Amino acid sequence: MYGVRIRRIMDETKKRVEAVGPVTAKICIVGEAPGETEEKEGKPFVGQAGRVLDGLLEECSISRSSCYITNVHKFRPRNNDFSSISESDLAASYRELEEEIMLVHPNILVLCGNEAMQAILGFKGIQHYRGSILESKYGKCIPGIHPAAIAREWTFRPATVIDFIKVKKESEYAEIKRTHRNLVIADTFAC
Ligand code: URA
Q: Among candidates 93, 74, 76, 72, which has minimal Cα distance to 36?
């Protein structure tokens, strides 16, 4: 497992921001792409969004250093605009992300925002799905509001704290433990 090498996309004209964290991590946090500060420092989530993420992790007693933190795309997009990434570059980034996740094999994937959802689940809809435990071909995941969106709109934060509390609990095991429900439907309205 540790011998597996990830084929890294290289672009001499841009600075690559590598993932951080142990490959034995139980929690893998997937962001979109680095911003200016991340590009400068060469680490993911160290700018404003990173500070929001750090606050969430701390509040939910999740140690940042125990998490594997990565991005869908490892280079800062032109004008920080994710849609400026070409289809072929994005396809290569998806393949690379897939290899990373297979290597780490976390118990839970935290999908920060729509682009991470699209990469892992193949669909978007963060406001509908945030906090849900979903199954992906890479295992269990929970979509969450992107920390950058929380920095712009602080009212998203309380729900995200609840989502990260769930992340902590779900990180203890890889399976999806569904609550067994026995639904009894009345035949008539007259009960
Ligand atoms: N936003 C992201 O999605 N990733 C980072 O690394 C920083 C900001």
A: 76
CB 17 within 8 A of CB 44: yes
If one residue of 17, 43, 71, 114 were mutated to test the ligand 1 pocket, choosing by the most ligand atoms within 8 A of its CB, it would be 71
137 CB-near residues (< 8 Å, 6+ apart): none
pTM for the complete prediction? 0.91
3-state DSSP: the chain helix, strand, coil percent, rounded to 5? Answer: 40, 15, 45
pLDDT, tens digit, 9 for 90 and up, residues 26-76: 999 999 999 999 999 999 999 999 999 999 999 999 999 999 999 999 999
Q: Tell how far the Cα of 151 is from the centroid of ligand 1, in angstroms.
A: 12
Closest CA to 110 of 134, 77, 76: 134
